[in-house]
Amino acid sequence: MYISICDDEPQETEYLSTLVSEWGRLYGYPCEIKTFPSAEAFLFSYAENRICDILLLDVEMSGISGVELAKRIREDKSRTEIIFITSHTEFIGEGYEVDALHYLVKPVAGDRLMPVLSKAAGRLSVEPPSVVITCEHETIKLYEADILYVESFLHYISIHTGKREYRIKENISSFAARLSPDFFRIHRSYLVSLKYVTRISRTFVTLEDSSMKEAIELPLARGKYDEINRAFISRN
To answer: Which residues form the Response regulatory domain (predicted)?
Structure first.
């Protein structure tokens, strides 16, 4: 479990770290805990490694506030479970906008924090399928639901999502092996998500999604027509 604590009060950060460690020991969750004195420090680290399961976040910090940081995380479509820590209850309403799991008022008692951490872990345990990649010196968790299709270029592949394209050094066969049966190899150079397939012809497959400006047509290899139809019907 990757847990981050972002608070500009060193004593509070140390105290929360102790509680999180104790929770992990009691409930059997191995934890990697990272602490940050500001939202800016968190964002600097997050830009390089976007893996954060649970974030304990102080609402009121100088510079970028906790609420603003949470909004930036949600812009990245992250499923990080955010637990706000605050000294004032009037900020509680702002948590709904960023799908915060819970608000805890300082000083945080262990018997209040631990059930919330367990709830966060429970929600994460039903997390949808994902794959971790390294792209441009960043470690990124991609959810399968966000992947439209994958294109192969010799020793590299390009992973196309509605938001951006990720180019990594990996062959398409090994990448396909890391994904669920929701993906189908339509051609030696293309792997598509059946979720976005809207039409199958003898020679091409059409993909459509609201994130696309227009539908995409990709070549279907000879002899794949019956197989992809069976996979498509089975999924739906």
So the answer is: 2-121
Q: How many CB atoms are closer than 10 A to CB 69?
A: 26
Tokens of 21: 């460690």
Cα atoms found within 13 Å of the Cα of residue 73, Cβ hemisphere only: 33
Counting the structural domains of the chain, the total is 2
CATH number assigned to the domain comprising residue 210: 2.40.50.1020
Residues in the chain, total: 236
| Predicted model pTM | 0.60
Are 95 and 189 within one domain?
no
- Residue that is last in its domain, among 125, 154, 184: 125
CB atoms within 10 A of CB 149: 21
- Residue 204 lies in domain: 130-235
What CA–CA distances, in Å, run from 66 to 44, 87, 103, 161, 196?
15, 12, 12, 28, 36
- How far, in Å, CA of 172 to CA of 230, rounded? 22
What is the per-residue pLDDT across 169-215, written as a single tens digit (0 to 9) for each? 999 999 999 999 999 999 999 999 999 999 999 999 999 987 788 89
